[in-house]
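B., you asked whether I could sanity-check this one before it goes into the benchmark set. Here's the sequence:
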Amino acid sequence: MKALSIRNLKKTYANGLVAIKGIDLDVEQGDFFALLGPNGAGKSTTIGIISSLVNASSGEVKIFNVDLKRNTQLAKSYIGLVPQEVNFNQFETARNIVMNQAGYYGMPRKEAKVQTERCLKLMYLWGQRDRVSRRLSGGMKRRVMIARALVHKPKLLILDEPTAGVDIEIRRSMWETMKQVNEQGTTIILTTHYLEEAENLCRNIAIINQGEIVENTNMQSLLARLNEEHFICDLKQPIKRAPKIAGYQIELLNALQLSIAVPKALGLNQLFQGLSEVQVEVTSMKNKSNRLERLFLDLVDQDKNKSA
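And here's what the prediction gave me:
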């Protein structure tokens, strides 16, 4: 079954701005799906329509085969939304914020208490349950919003920039929690500006630009289309200038580090053979930049060129 099915979705705002230009999109039940795009591409509008915060101009949206327009309340009950901005009463405790959300969905108080404890523990917030939320850190506030979105046991969880503004350690712990939620059967749609996040978490991906879906595929297939990868190589001995090896772009970062662009057609073996021939020994290497980020920028640039 499809967790989300969108057909010919369009949105034109009152000022004439065409935000969505007839997109089609399917997300399968159980998937961890990335919806990416630059600022102003139509991501937020699409998420707004799915969560019934924005009215579509035309088109169809179904949540687990329930038509959003014809049966809004039932469709909404299947969704948990974590918005970009903190939007709870910061003078309430974490426990009350989550408990109140359960009440909005008509959950009996006894069950709401159980679910609130489960969600706060899942997000490592049980020890902070009676703390006024305005005294929580930014990362903790983000986790409160995820706990709130999960308390009514939604089938589809929408995470709109869930780790924006939190430090790397907290971000990675949240990744593990989100993986756990997905493994327990909840379908997740993620929007993020941290493309490393999408690469690590998501199995399928759609990229939206200028109101249109410019790519919709699985993550492995998309990454396989990389024409080149960029690496930082640490050297055993210092050198004064970058070696020249045919087919590779090599830059000297410092006496003990090289930045190397490796074309997919040539690969690493030929690179190491060339370095060996000029007596440059590499002790370790790592990716210079996130692979998905390079693809994302290439796809958006291609779409801009088509529109020009």
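One thing to flag: The domain at 2-223 is CATH 3.40.50.300 (Rossmann fold). Otherwise nothing jumped out at me.
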